[in-house]
Amino acid sequence: MSMLVVGSVALDSLETPFGVREDVPGGSATFFSTAASFFGPVQLVGVVGEDFPAEHVSFLQERGVDLEGLVRAPGRTFRWKGRYGFDLNEAQTLDTQLNVFGEFRPELPARFRRPDFLFLGNIHPELQGRVLDQVEARPRLVAMDTMNFWISGQREKLLEVLARVDLLFINDAEVRQLAGEHNVVKAARKILAMGPSRVVVKRGEYGAVLFEGDRIFAAPAWPLEEVFDPTGAGDSFAGGFMGYLANGSGDVDHESLRQACVAGSTLASFCVERFSLDRFRELSREEIRHRLEAFGSLTRFRELPATLR
Amino acid sequence: MSMLVVGSVALDSLETPFGVREDVPGGSATFFSTAASFFGPVQLVGVVGEDFPAEHVSFLQERGVDLEGLVRAPGRTFRWKGRYGFDLNEAQTLDTQLNVFGEFRPELPARFRRPDFLFLGNIHPELQGRVLDQVEARPRLVAMDTMNFWISGQREKLLEVLARVDLLFINDAEVRQLAGEHNVVKAARKILAMGPSRVVVKRGEYGAVLFEGDRIFAAPAWPLEEVFDPTGAGDSFAGGFMGYLANGSGDVDHESLRQACVAGSTLASFCVERFSLDRFRELSREEIRHRLEAFGSLTRFRELPATLR
User: Fold this and answer.
1) pLDDT at B306
2) CATH 3.40.1190.20 fits B3-299, yes or no
3) How does pLDDT run across A156-182, given as a tens digit for each residue?
4) What SS3 state is found at A55?
5) Is B218 close to A299, i.e. CB distance below 8 A?
6) Are the beta carbons of B16 and B228 closer than 8 angstroms?
7) Is residue B44 scored above 80 in pLDDT?
8) Are strands B91-97 and B79-84 parallel, antiparallel or unpaired?
9) What sequence ranges are listed for the domain Carbohydrate kinase PfkB (chains A, B) (predicted)?
10) Buried/exposed A81-101: b ≥16 CB within 10 Å, e otherwise
11) Whole-angstrom Cα distance, residue B262 to residue B282?
12) Cα–Cα distance, B77 to A48 (Å, whole number)
């Protein structure tokens, strides 16, 4: 089935305890589409500047990402610079240069207007709404991401677009901020009352929790011995999640969403093992298949005989 | 099978965003034995002062805790005063008065010297070693807990006792500190090389992870909408874990330990729903059975069909 992502394509500069990288590929649409591409084709809408290296474009194309919607605009590519300490769960932003991304007005090519699955990456909620306006048939699943910047600065617009989507991907701190509620379970329930019928709370090294109605599914993160660079983990999670759904039966029932969480957690776990997209460059189907299977042994237990006093 | 716990019995004073309590029952042996008592009998060794209210003693007795090893010494009971903010994962200690606990030298009554299961609560590692010296037959499982205070101040003694036990319960921050390694997976593997063949890393609201050889099991915490007081959660986890093992087949194979993690997580989840032991006072077998079963639906997913490109 067809899948469309609209989001940022960036050049990231990173400092982690394990090294430094400059102007490596980043951005929500980049990580999402790369992760999803392991399951099937993806259409991408985004913008880069004249300085965006052709090799990154080639990489996405080779992975089966349809770049008809990737505009090359005059000027420089969106740049983000961040630093992580030993606690890799949180990034410190050192610099943000919007550049051509500041003028980004997503326009869907005609071929992209009837996606079965749609992911609205973390961009201005007004732009997320504009994308939805251009979609000509109701997708099977519309998911979105957002961030603290929009939650505090564009709350009204954010609530508008939230009411139009089926699923929100959001992290721990942001779900608390958006709901105005410290308890994550209560916070997620509040979001469910704002529009989306599913919320996936991403908790970094602790995994992710899916909320749908009264049903809750907790997926751990894969226990990694080496985490090099958490940048893009959330978008890789979403890419694995949506890619899995779009390229199986296409069903979005609760059982399929649980499996999608495991697929998302798996792709996110690979993402963070190297800088930027580097782990995805060498990632094989066999490695993914092996880790997907191993998730079972990480979480399964036999039913407990109830021997209570 | 028989189970023995040696640890603290305390009077806690607590401040949380949800209220204040003074001189309520606390201590590692108290929470452990109460949680374990839902599965079967427990023998307790500890010390209280002359001021320890008879009603707390009666409560433990009514729950089937054998208190022949609970000494009443001249002086005041061990007191701990702590505060939690909205981030209930970490306590701020406001005051510690060791009182009679400062002179505690655990002596096992003759009847208590052949336990099948032994839990060494968080006390001075030298005392934990003294308990092991008094045990006359190798238990099926010896588990211990510890804390940052002993890791930094009594490292040598701690490593000595660690080499004599089968399982270490330890929290996130402490496993990092003990192993001198930030990555939790690597840290746990280092501990496995120090003696215990199993390590259970307790991660508060994120659950617990069992490490045994190369096998890893991740148990989520039960998703609670109300967390009132996290005090005792770790000891209640250990109590549920060990109580489950001691009162089933008595096996300590890997599958049983996975189930024990779920039992531990279940008892810990009840503990934090009220202050001190209050939730355990009204907790029914049916409630425990229901939550044990519901853990299955929280974590289970169908095997993923591998449809990779």
Assistant:
1) 65
2) yes
3) 999 999 999 999 999 999 999 999 999
4) helix
5) yes
6) yes
7) yes
8) antiparallel
9) 24-276
10) bbebeeebbebeeeeeeebbb
11) 21
12) 68
How many other C-beta atoms can be found within 10 angstroms of the C-beta atom of residue A136? 10
Per-residue pLDDT reduced to its tens digit, A61-70: 999 999 999 9
- In angstroms, the CA A241 to CA A33 distance is 11
Map tokens 């599965």 to a residue: B39
Decide if pLDDT at B32 tops 70.
Answer: yes
Task: Give the closest-approach CA distance of A140 to chain B in angstroms.
Answer: 19
Whether B29 and B45 have beta carbons less than 8 Å apart is answered as yes
CB contact under 8 A, A289 and B301: no
Window 118-177 of B, Cβ < 8 Å to A: none
- DSSP code per residue over A126-192: HHHHHHHHH--S--SEEEEE--HHHHHHSHHHHHHHHTT-SEEEEEHHHHHHHHT-SSHHHHHHHHH
Mutate to test the interface with B, among A206, A210, A228 (most CBs of B within 10 A): A206
The three-class DSSP label of residue A219 is strand
DSSP result, B37-91: TTTS-EEEEEEE-TTS-HHHHHHHHHTTEEEEEEEE-SSPPPEEEEEE-SSTT-E
**DSSP symbols for B141-186:** EEEEE--HHHHHHSHHHHHHHHTT-SEEEEEHHHHHHHHT-SSHHH
In angstroms, the Cα distances linking B166 to A173, B8, B31, B268 are 37, 21, 21, 22
Asked whether A50 and A101 are in contact (CB, 8 A), the reply is no
Asked whether the beta carbons of A106 and A45 are under 8 A apart, the reply is yes
Structural domain spans, chain A: 3-299
- A5 at interface of B, judged by CB pairs closer than 8 A: no
B304 pLDDT band, cuts 50/70/90, is confident
Residue of chain A whose Cα is closest to the Cα of B173: A87
Which among B209, B259, B298 has CB closest to A216?
A: B298
Give the strand pairing for A117-120 and A3-6. parallel
Q: How far apart are CA A41 and CA B181, in angstroms?
A: 40
Q: Which of A185, A215, A263 sits opposite B225 (nearest CB)?
A: A185
- Of B31, B10, B24, residue with least CA distance to B239: B31
CA pair distance B23, A100, nearest whole angstrom: 62
